[in-house]
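User: what does the whole thing look like in 3D?
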Amino acid sequence: MGTIKDIQAGIIEDFEMFDDWIQKYEYLIDLGKELAPIEEKYKTEDSLIKGCQSRVWLHAEKQDEKIIYTADSDAIMTKGIIAILINVLSNQKAAEIVSADLSFIDAIGLKEQLSATRANGLVSMIKKMKLYALALNNK
Amino acid sequence: MFDVNKIREQFPILKRKVNDKDLVYFDNGATTQKPQSVIDAVSNYYQEENANVHRGVHFLSGLATDKFEATRKTIQQFISAKHNHEIIFTKGTTDSINLVANGFRSLLKKGDEIIISELEHHSNIVPWQMCCEISGSTLKVIPLLDNGSLDMENFNNLLSENTKLVAVSHVSNTLGTINPIKEIIEKSHLIGAKVLIDGAQAASHICLNMQELDADFYCFSAHKMYGPTGVGVLYGKEEILNTLPPYQGGGEMIKEVSFEKTTYASLPYKFEAGTPNIGGVIAFKSSIDFIRELGVKNITKYEDGLLQYATSEILKIEGARLYGTSKNKSGIISFNIKGIHPYDIGTIVDKMGIAIRTGHHCTQPIMKRYNIPGTVRISLAVYNTKTEVDICIGAIKKAQEMLS
Ligand SMILES: Cc1ncc(COP(=O)(O)O)c(C=O)c1O
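Assistant: Here's the predicted 3D structure for the full assembly of 543 residues, as structure tokens:
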């Protein structure tokens, strides 16, 4: 598993190969389909992320000093977005997650690719992931 | 003759590109686009006519006042109201409903009942909940049948001598259902209840005649009728408006103010406190003129044809399911495609320049009724074409292909 920085660089490289929005969307859709499922018991009101038009559940736990995220959404594009974030942040140390500079989002123009409500949802997802890391770090 | 290309020429925004594609605008239920005449009327007001209304002795104030009042007259004619002063200018449908709900608060008591329906927009639910909470009256709800029409048998049973007010929409903004409001009004009046109709989705699509309809209140928004935002109408029967207390206090709505006792102005000014959206009201006349020139009956006929075409095309999409299949429908189509979240469809077709709405459309009880997270909604206006329907269906099929 690489560092947060390395993984981001890999995603930026992937996106450089795409010519148009269709390929980018298809990439997100594929990521969404591949996302490992969340355990049903973690799909609770508490794990729902606010600010998304579709429902997104996010769960985090600590294993061997690292934070493991699992998530699900009823919309596949949303699932693709959370999958990208999980690829970058899951299985990393809490302190690194909290201080991570997610510059790949601007580099691949992810926000511009999304509708305004989805871009808001993206911000909410990152916030919730960092908050989970912060809370689990102190445990 | 009804020439849709001539109509489209009047709407400058329809020439613009979105994501490098020709804009296809199918979110007319949320708000319609504006013809050049309305845009010109707004800018002309600020360039040539700006002054406050009903106040100054000077030339411009007189001009602005005359034009402001000319809109009132035009609307009275447009909806065949008996009196000019039965037309109250508000900020929009939501504001009109709140005005009435606020007034009824002090006229109702514990044990009184208000009836709404399961298909109402949140704007025709929440004000009545607030009204009930404060007055101690009870809210009753007419349920929906599977096809998205009101369960009228249930309505007959809900009506009782406790019913003081019935508030239903003319056309559902999510299902497109045209409700049997004439029947609702007649039955409600038999037991002495008043009726408010939320006409937000009807006023630019269906011919209105207040004296024939006999509604006590009828509400609509200019921005859904090719007019400016921030302007709406509350029509109310004179004798009933007179029984309602004022909504807001302030300038314009008074007869005489002293610290001992303030008396209120007569209709319509009693309900028009403060400086109104003057430019908006004046431009509203241009949008009504636009509608009247085309003729509401012609508009209904054209949109019905488009509705039928779009509905049959959507049903050809594999896995498509319509919500709202009542016989009596206006140009609103809600649907989902099996296994696909509506939001995913909306996001992808947006990339192809197509504006449709996805989500609950401010009608969460309908979503609950059908147990769905939302729908994809196409809502039609007079400038939409069959070609646009084809482009939209093509885009939805492309989205389906990408998503499955
Ligand atoms: C049926 C219905 N009622 C009320 C409203 C509220 O209208 P406005 O936002 O213009 O006040 C709308 C529009 O969204 C509507 O479709």
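In plain terms: The first strand of chain A starts at residue 56 and ends at 63. Chain A has a mean pLDDT of 89.
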